[in-house]
């Protein structure tokens, strides 16, 4: 490698570090755009920054700077000096559009989601949940005390589930079952998609009362109130019986192994012969690849999410071996792991009951 090549490589590496260091600033730029409603104000045709500023109650020059930053992030285009339009990616920040990620951005750029990250190094040293020390209570208790924040979290989780909801109904043989219980199902987005695609199924959305707050609207929108019931409860104590398929999406990663085993054990306790537990979560590889470009997108989000579980709720991402272990300890046999390619990085983890077995529940 020549000296010129070394210098070019060094420049590229420095650029990577600088972009990563500015990552939190990019996130707050998205937050400002959402809070000011600039995507809605821009609409479908190019508009001048001063017009957007006037409609947003903002100053023209700072608004121009914000819109140019959003342009640099690929969310807007600047056609002539000070005239902007929205890119396809930018439309995802418009709450009026199907598939919007506005609530997701609001939630994950809110101080309730970001403040504990300032203490990531402490969580790495001790294994403790930084959120609890910062806010004086655990994450889910904190948001349950604020109806607005709880609604925002439920909406964000519904938006985050949209891709999986589109892919899951066609990625698994639901036709061999009669009833699906979505454990920790939140606003019902995922189960509604499954029931829409499989008219012979009935369903149960099971979550806390706060978690279910927006679910009635989802069922009404999908005309599923006669085929799907809402059950409030605590999956650390029990899950509803009467279903032959128990669906668990983006739940186990919120909790420690012992807590995950408890949830799975409760599913195992009510699982009939031939029944299944279907876990929908990312499955971490045993070894992370070394090609930075190949792993910069999906894998980076997966591992950052894993750290988010550490600092905010105490959970973790898991490898296939990890899932096999928690399933086994809950009296379940892991049958298969299938990547959900249309909703990467999620996979479908299918498990069945061991017979006979006495599950080793956690605390």
Automatic annotation (TrEMBL):
UniProt entry tagged with the keyword S-adenosyl-L-methionine: yes
Matches recorded under SUPFAM superfamilies: S-adenosyl-L-methionine-dependent methyltransferases, Winged helix' DNA-binding domain
Sorted UniProt keywords: Methyltransferase, S-adenosyl-L-methionine, Transferase
Pfam families linked to this entry: Dimerisation (PF08100), Methyltransf_2 (PF00891)
Domain O-methyltransferase dimerisation, chain residue ranges per copy: 19-93
Keyword Cytoplasm on entry: no
Record-annotated O-methyltransferase C-terminal domain positions: 117-332
Source organism superkingdom: Bacteria
Entry-linked InterPro entries: COMT-like, COMT_C, COMT_dimerisation, SAM-dependent_MTases_sf, WH-like_DNA-bd_sf, WH_DNA-bd_sf
PANTHER family membership: O-METHYLTRANSFERASE CICE, PUTATIVE (AFU_ORTHOLOGUE AFUA_4G14580)-RELATED
Protein name stated in the entry: Hydroxyneurosporene-O-methyltransferase
Organism: Streptomyces cirratus
């Amino acid at each position: 490698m020549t000296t010129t090549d070394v210098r070019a490589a060094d420049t590229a590496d420095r650029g990577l570090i600088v972009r990563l260091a500015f990552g939190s600033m990019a996130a707050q730029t998205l937050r400002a755009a959402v809070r000011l409603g600039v995507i809605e104000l821009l609409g479908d045709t190019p508009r001048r920054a001063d017009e957007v500023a006037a409609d947003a109650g903002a100053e023209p020059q700072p608004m121009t700077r914000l819109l140019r930053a959003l342009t640099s992030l690929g969310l807007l285009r600047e056609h002539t000096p000070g005239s902007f339009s929205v890119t396809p990616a930018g439309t995802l920040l418009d709450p009026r559009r199907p598939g919007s990620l506005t609530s997701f951005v609001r939630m994950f750029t809110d101080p309730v989601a970001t403040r504990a990250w300032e203490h990531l190094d402490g969580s790495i040293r001790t294994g403790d949940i930084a959120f609890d020390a910062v806010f004086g209570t655990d994450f889910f208790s904190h948001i349950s005390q604020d109806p607005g924040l709880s609604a925002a979290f439920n909406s964000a989780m519904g938006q985050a589930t949209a891709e999986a909801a589109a892919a899951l109904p066609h990625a698994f043989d639901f036709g061999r079952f009669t009833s699906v219980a979505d454990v920790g199902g939140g606003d019902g987005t995922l189960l509604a998609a499954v029931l829409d695609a499989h008219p012979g199924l009935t369903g149960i959305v099971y979550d806390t009362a706060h978690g279910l707050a927006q679910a009635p609207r989802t069922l009404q929108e999908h005309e599923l109130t006669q085929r799907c019931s809402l059950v409030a409860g605590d999956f650390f104590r029990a899950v509803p019986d009467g279903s032959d398929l128990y669906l668990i999406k983006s739940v186990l990663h919120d909790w420690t192994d012992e807590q995950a085993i408890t949830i799975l054990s409760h599913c195992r306790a009510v699982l009939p012969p031939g029944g299944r537990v279907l876990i929908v979560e990312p499955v971490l590889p045993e070894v992370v690849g070394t090609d930075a470009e190949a792993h910069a997108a999906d894998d980076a989000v997966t591992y950052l999410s894993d750290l988010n579980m550490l600092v905010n709720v105490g959970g973790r991402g898991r490898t296939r071996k990890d899932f096999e272990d928690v399933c086994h300890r809950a009296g379940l046999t892991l049958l298969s792991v299938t990547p959900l390619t249309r909703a990467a990085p999620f996979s479908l983890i299918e498990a069945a009951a061991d017979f006979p077995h006495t599950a080793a529940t956690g605390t």
